[in-house]
Amino acid sequence: MSLKWAINGVLDDIYFYAVGIPRTLFTWKPDSNLSILNFFETNVKKYPNELAFIFKDESITWLEADKKVSQYGAFLQAQGIEKGDCFALLMDNCPDFLMLLLAAHRIGAIAALINTTVTGEGLKHVVTIVDAKAAILGASHLEKFKASMPETELDALKLYLVNDSQKVPEGYVDINEASKDSKNVQAFPLQIKDIGMYIYTSGTTGLPKAALITNGRAVKTSFAGQFFGFRAKQKDILYLTLPLYHATGLLWSWAGCLRAGATTVIKERFSASEFWPDVRKHKVTMFGYVGELCRYLMNVPPNEEDKNHQLRVISGNGLRPDIWEKFQSRFNIPKIRELYGATEGVGALVNTHGRPGMVGHYMRGSLVVKCDQESGEPIKNADGFCESVEVGETGLFISELSKLATFEGYLDKQASNKKIMTDVMEEGDRWFNSGDLLTRHENNWLSFADRVGDTYRWKSENVSTMEVAAIINKYAEVLDSNVYGVEVKSAEGKAGMALLNVTDDFDFDVFSDHISKNLNAFQLPYFLRTTEVMKTTGTFKHQKEDLKKQGFDPALIEDKLYFYQKGNYVEINQDLYERIQSGEERF
Questions:
Q1: N or C: which end of the chain has fewer CB within 10 A?
Q2: φ, ψ (nearest 5 deg) of residue 158
Q3: pLDDT score of 202
């Protein structure tokens, strides 16, 4: 087995350089006129009457999509949107989203892709930091948008709407109606170095940051999605249920398959109950995933139709080891290609061989270095430099910056500078700090361990929230868990706490036995909080910062809270809370 994975790693390296070097030397030059719009326009010429999009009961050919892109572009130009101007795009998944993005490319504008779950101060922030001249909204997001934006800023924006689950109300411009007679779009050739769009970080720690997505980054991500993720062909059909405002859905999945001219079946938003019927109905051959999406599909009761599909490959990120093989076996998935990377990151990894639990292996320019696993601070040797971790060790994943491996960063230059490390392995070098902890395995394979800050220290030991969650999730009546550390006034470090979504059959006594047998004492979740709805981002990432602040105080929390006391969980009331904080109640 070890030899097999070693050979696969070498084959990956050969394939990577064979397909990547010619493009690096001859195609991806900074002044090259290249963007994902080029792939779209190639499909229009080669496959004009083939299907580009399927959405609900609507089918759109490449030629029809191209006409719509030009109409949108001409209309926006007539409204004063010029080359280099930005407009915000706040819409659920639909073909209009993609055609408006392509229209922005055609006229040289920049689309800011707004997370549909953001509201209030966060929504105001993401629109204002990009200096948007206009906003195009799905009608169902109008009231939220109006409530979030100050009146003066709202008045300064050109506002256009599209029908979604709601109709465009009277008094507002329906951009589809308004643009249907628009003609004579003036196209601007895009260079690979130009900013093509803004994609925002998830905002799990503070307000979202706008990552600068150059055309080069979009093209390279689509290249990796095609050649290392899906290896799509023109006759393939992609099922897209991931949000289009995020890089995994937009660039890795859709743009990766766009390169091949594949058809995309677009779903407004993820639905576990409708997922497999859609896959069967449209004869889907590929879909993009994030790990929690797969977990939600596993939570649907098994049925005889589970393996009735035409899928040949799925690709995405975050598929955890505790469900990988179960998911692949239950649904008979031929190939799983796991990605590791970040929207703004440098040095993505791909596990093209389907080794369960792995995100790929060391590539040139990547390192996992020794660090304090709670703070993420690198540990320097006597010479003042970092050291690579050994096999079996966990550390901080970093990627070397060079002319070929660049970090475009965020609109916020200060935030960008915080992601760059210098003098890491030698004087004068520069590295991108991923903020992620990875574990090194034999033959230089890597697995994701945790995000810096999610790991916490208890009883003088480092605790990985992901590792604890994997054990908790193996208990059949746990549908999902979110593990984090909370401060206790009477104790050093942080005690483990888990937010659980459970079935009606959940049994605390049996669960207590499960965790005591499978977790070390320092890993135990001493506090439990049960909820009917897990708080997640639009890409199913768990929200933790608010949970950490609330801790286990029953005065702040409506959910039921429990404390691990002498081998069993007991409900926390105000008296028990105070005894724990004072140290009267021992761990």
A1: N
A2: -80, 130
A3: 64
Q: What is the pLDDT of residue 151?
A: 87
pLDDT of residue 464: 84
Q: How far apart are CA 242 and CA 231, in angstroms?
A: 19
DSSP 99-156: HHHHHHHHHT-EEEE--TT--HHHHHHHHHTTT-SEEEEEGGGHHHHHHHS-HHHHHH
CA distances from 168 to 78, 123, 136 (A): 21, 20, 12
- C-beta atoms surrounding 105 within 10 Å: 26
Query: Distance (Å, rounded) from C-alpha 218 to C-alpha 243?
Result: 16
Report the distance separating Cα 451 and Cα 169, nearest Å: 43
Over the stretch 488-544, which tens digit does the pLDDT of each residue have?
A: 988 878 899 999 999 999 999 999 999 988 888 889 999 999 998 887 776 677 778
Among 541, 435, 546, which residue's Cα sits nearest to residue 497? 546
Q: What is the pLDDT of residue 450?
A: 82
- Spans of the chain, pLDDT less than 70: 1-2, 5-6, 8-10, 12-13, 16-17, 20-22, 24-26, 202-206, 460, 538-539
Going from the C-alpha of 516 to that of each of 472, 476, 483, 565, 586, the distances in angstroms are 11, 16, 16, 12, 17
Q: What is the dihedral of CA 164, 170, 175, 176, to 10 degrees?
A: 70
Taking the C-alpha atoms of residue 359 and residue 288, their distance in angstroms, rounded to an integer, is 15
What domains appear along the chain, each with residue ranges and CATH number? Answer: 30-340 (3.40.50.12780), 362-451 (2.30.38.10), 458-582 (3.30.300.30)
Report the pLDDT value the prediction gives residue 315, as an integer from 0 to 100: 97
Tell me how far apart the 2 most distant CA atoms of the chain are, in Å.
77
Q: Which of 366, 363, 350 is nearest to 401 (CA)?
A: 366
Give the number of other CB atoms < 10 A from CB of residue 544: 20
Q: Is the dihedral of CA 524, 528, 532, 537 positive or negative?
A: negative
pLDDT at 114: 95
User: H/E element holding 258?
Assistant: helix 256-258
8 Å CB contact between 226 and 209: no
Residues 435/448, Cβ–Cβ less than 8 Å: no
Q: Is 486 helix (H, G, I), strand (E, B) or coil?
A: strand
Q: How many residues does the chain have?
A: 587
Question: Which pair of tokens denotes residue 297?
Answer: 């599909």
190: Cα within 13 Å, side-chain hemisphere: 29
Two tokens, residue 61: 């050919």
Confirm if 358 and 336 have CB atoms less than 8 A apart.
no
Closest C-alpha to 559, from 532, 525, 521: 532
Phi, psi of 69 (to 5 degrees): -60, -45
Give which of 380, 416, 422, 385 is closest to 401, Cα–Cα. Answer: 422
